[in-house]
C-alpha cells in the first residue's frame, strides 16, 4: 500500500517537471519569435511625398517642409519618408507620366508606401490621372491645393483632400483698402498649365474692380523682360504675385529667387494670396496659412496611418487666415496701421530705440534729469548769491553812506573853520573895497587885486562845499580807474580843518607818478577819512607837539600800498584781531563801524587792510589795493 502511494507521488513529480519544462520552452519560444520582435520594434510607416515641379517651388515647398515637420512631430510610429518630384508637370506632355509611374511602382514593388501625400495641384492632377496604376491600394492625401483644381468625381475610397479656397476678390479689396490710390494691378504669373488655369480664374474676379483699377498680367512676357520694366512702373501700381513657375520664355523659376529678384528691382509694392510667399517681399493681407494647412494635412495623414479610411475623411476647404502684414513693407509704402483690417497681425516690426535699449535710455534720461535738476539748483544758487552780493553791496553802500554822514558830523567843526577863513577874507576885502570906492581917487589896480582875492576865496569856499557834497552823495558802487594820490590829497584836504583844529601835524609822502587802481573814489576816500580821523582821535591825549601823523603811499609788486601811521598809544594786543569787527569800539561815543566798513570796502576792491602796533609808539594801518592793469603794464 505504501509502495503504491510512493509510486503515485513519483509520477506526480515527473508530470510536474514535464509541465515546467514545456512552460519554460514556450516562454523561450515566445521571446525569440519574430512577432514579439516586431512588437518591440514596429515596422516604419512609409510615406511617399509627391512634389509638384520639384522640391523647391514656392509656395508648395513651404507646405512640404511644414507637413514633414508636423508629421514627424505627431506620428507615434517611426517614419520612412521619401520625396519624389513631378518634373513632368512643367509641361503639358502627359506621355512622360507613364514611365514615371512605372518608376514609382518599381521602387515600391517590395515595400509599397503606406500613404501618398501629393503637394500642389500638378501633383494632385497627376495622381488622379494615374490613380488606377499608382498603388491603387495605398491611401492618398491631396493637399496644398485649391478646391477648383481637385477632380472630386475621381476621388476614390482611398483618397482624401485637404484643400483651400482662393478669394482673389478679398485680395484686391485688401490692396484697395491699404493703398486706396491704386489704379493698376499687375498679376505676375507664368505660363505652365497650372498657371494658365489660375490666370483665367483670377480674371473672373476682376470685373467688380475694373471701374477703379486697370488689370494686366505677365503670362506672355519673359520674366527677365518684366524685371526690366518693373523698376519703372507708373505711380500707384501694385504687383499681385500669382505664380512664377515657368515663364513665357520657358524658363523654370525654382525656389524664391524670382520673387526676390522682382522685389529687388520693383518700384511698386507686392501682394499675394498665400503666406508661403510671405517673409521678406510681400506687403501682406488676408492669405492662406502654411502652418495651418500643414497641420491639418499632418492630422489627416496620422489618422489614415492609424487605420482610418481615407475616403471617410471629408474636410471643407479652408479660407484665408487672419490678415498678416510686414511692418518693413508698410513703412516703405507708407501704409499706416490704422488702415489695416481688424485683427491683422503685424510681423517684423523693428523694435524702437526705447524697446531695444529701455534700461540704457531710462538711465540716460535719469542722469540727464538729475543733471538738469543739479544745474537748475546751481543756477538758482548762483542767482541767489548774485542777488545776495548785490544786496550786500547795496547795504554796504547805504551803511557807508550813513558812516560818511557821521564822518561829516565829526568834520563839521573843521569844515566850519575852513569855510570861515575864506568867508572872513571875503568880508574884509569887500569892506576894504567899499571904503576905497568912497575915496575921490579910485585906485583901480588895487581894487582889481581885491576883487581877485574875493574870487579866489569864494572858489576856496566853493571847493570845501563841493568836497563835502560829494562825500555825502548817495551813489551806487562804481569802479573806475582812479589815481590814489588824488584821493589821498582830497581826503587830507577834507580833514585839514580837523587836523588843524587838533594841532595834528600831517605829513604826506606820495609818489611822483600816479597810483592807478580800479575803484570807487568816494568809498576809498571814506576809508582814508576813517583811518585819518581814528589816528587823530588816538593822539587826542598827547601833548600838542607830539601829535604827528604820516600818510605814505607807494607801489609794491603790483599793489598800491597806503600806510597811515600815528604817534598814539597804539592798539591793545588783545584788541588787534577785533578792531575790524562791527560794533567794536573803545571810544565813549564811538559806533565801532568805521574800521568794519573800511574792511568791507577794501575787500570789495580785492584788497587787504591790516593794523599793527609800531615798534616805538602808535598804530599803523596798511591798505593794499591791486594796481589797475594799465598801471601794472606801465610799471
Ligand atoms: P569807532 O571809531 O567808532 O570806535 P572804529 O571802527 O573806527 O570805530 O574803530 C574801532 C576801534 O579801533 C576804536 O574804538 C579804537 O579802539 C581802535 N582804533 C582805531 N584806530 C586806532 C588807532 N589809530 N590807534 C589806536 N586804536 C585805534
From TrEMBL:
EC number(s) recorded for this UniProt protein? 2.7.13.3
Entry keyword Signal: yes
Q: Name one GO molecular function term.
A: phosphorelay sensor kinase activity
Determine the domain of life of the protein's source.
Bacteria
> Which parts of the chain span the membrane according to its record?
359-380
SUPFAM superfamilies attached to this UniProt entry = ATPase domain of HSP90 chaperone/DNA topoisomerase II/histidine kinase, Homodimeric domain of signal transducing histidine kinase
Q: Tell me which positions the record assigns to the signal sequence.
A: 1-39
Its keywords, alphabetically, are: Membrane, Phosphoprotein, Signal, Transmembrane, Transmembrane helix
Quote the catalytic activity from the record. Answer: ATP + protein L-histidine = ADP + protein N-phospho-L-histidine
Task: Please list the coiled coil stretches.
Answer: none
Q: Where is the Histidine kinase domain?
A: 414-629
The record's annotation in SMART domains points to: HATPase_c, HisKA
* Protein name, entry field: histidine kinase
Native species of this protein? Bradyrhizobium icense
